[in-house]
Amino acid sequence: MKISGNKILITGGASGIGLGLTERFLQEGNTVLICGRREDALMEVKSRFPSVHTHVCDLTKSYDREKLFHWVSKEHPDLNVLINNAGIQNWMAITDDDFFERAQAEIEINIEAPLHLTSLFIQLKSLQTIVNITSGLSFVPLTKTPVYAATKAFLHSFTWSLRHLLKEKNIEVIEIIPPALNTDLGGKGLHDFAPPVSDFIASIFEQLKEGKNELTFGFTEAMAKNERDAIETAFNRMNG
Fold it and tell me: In the predicted model, is pLDDT for residue 129 greater than 60?
């Protein structure tokens, strides 16, 4: 993936890792579109970075995802990068009264949305790159976040397949695998112990410049490395 001169859509681009990516891609000379549910959060980013294009979108709703695609295809038909970043994390127990309701929300945002958006945006002739944000919990689940960890394991597996399936369309598929970072994911204060997003973003962009398609940081570097060789051998054997 080239670092500059892109037109990029970042879902959930108003906070956390999404905001870090938004800021850095702008610095690198890209045009950035962001979407999210909260108009006030989008407008706050717009006030800091006036060149950002914003779109209010509830990614739990298939209709909103389709509206997002139609907006992009009409107003920004030269979009060439889709970053599936939006995600939610619930700390919960399976015995909680609202467990299933909260689990459904995680599945809608963390699985259904990137799958649906991918199937829509590969229709753009200009699309060159898809980036999926997974997690170190793809490899080892944190049982306090049982459904979140499972959704990220799903997306990690899907990303392997997607990279293989989109070769014939010459669409590059990149996976960003963050560890715990100091964001409000899951709730304020839960990740105050973790490294800052800025350090993570700096590392990610160095890896992008090196042409890597699996980007890791800290804990996730070791986890991905332990998995990669054996799984890649098996994957290639099964999928030709």
Answer: yes
